[in-house]
Amino acid sequence: MNRIAFLLFSLLPLAGFTLAGDTPAPRVDDLNQVIQDRFGNLTEEDIHQGRFGVTRVARPARRRIFVPVDEKERAPIVRLREEGWSASLYVLGLGDTLYGPIGTSPEGLPAALDRAEVLRLGKGAIDKRQALQGVQSDVRLEARPIPVSGKSCAGCHDPSLKEGDPLGAVVYVLRRTTSP
Ligand code: HEC
Fold first, then answer.
1. How much is the mean pLDDT over the chain?
2. Which tens digits make up the pLDDT trace of 77-128?
3. 95 belongs to a structural domain
4. DSSP state, residue 53
5. Is 115 part of any domain?
6. What residue numbers bound the domain in which 76 lies?
7. Is residue 15 part of a domain?
8. Domains in the chain: how many in total?
9. Ligand 1 binding residues, C-beta < 6 A
């Protein structure tokens, strides 16, 4: 069963490639690094202010938006935009709570996706502890686990967790804005 699931997941990117034409895959790794760094670096102030989980990347609001704090955080989003992609994301907690969509630009509300599909991909990334890709109509999805990245994480979440164990997942949504 596992093997079949794995095969399906591995075929998804291929299907996406055909659907999206010969568009080169969006480079989400740099953006992922920025988001993972947000989750991975909890300061004393964050703890005092109660900034945990999804509020690390977007404040609770009717329209959630990821606001880069500096050039390092901004650069990957700008580059994706220059390459013709607009990015938004979802955060999946371990209790299967899905937050999002979270936009990366003040203009352009991220269009609604099939949440069940986003959830499925995020859970898959958590279960398999690996990056997964998917396609939904005209968008590409990229899921990445959010791992335990230091003693503090497990201390708060679950002391039995080890370094690298997933605490959730991010699912990036990449929408083509210009032709390549
Ligand atoms: C001081 C306690 C504390 C520490 C330390 C902590 N977390 Fe959390 N984390 C929380 C709480 C509380 C929530 C749930 C937030 C909510 O539901 O509003 C959470 C939620 C999450 C979520 C799921 C998203 C969500 O909102 O449900 C992820 C992923 C996460 N934390 C990752 C991490 C990582 C990675 C670390 C280590 C670098 C870490 N956390 C350290 C308290 C903590």
1. 85
2. 999 999 999 999 999 998 899 999 999 987 666 677 899 999 999 999 999 9
3. yes
4. G
5. yes
6. 21-176
7. no
8. 1
9. 39-40, 42, 47, 52-54, 91, 93, 97, 146, 149-150, 152-153, 156-157, 167-168
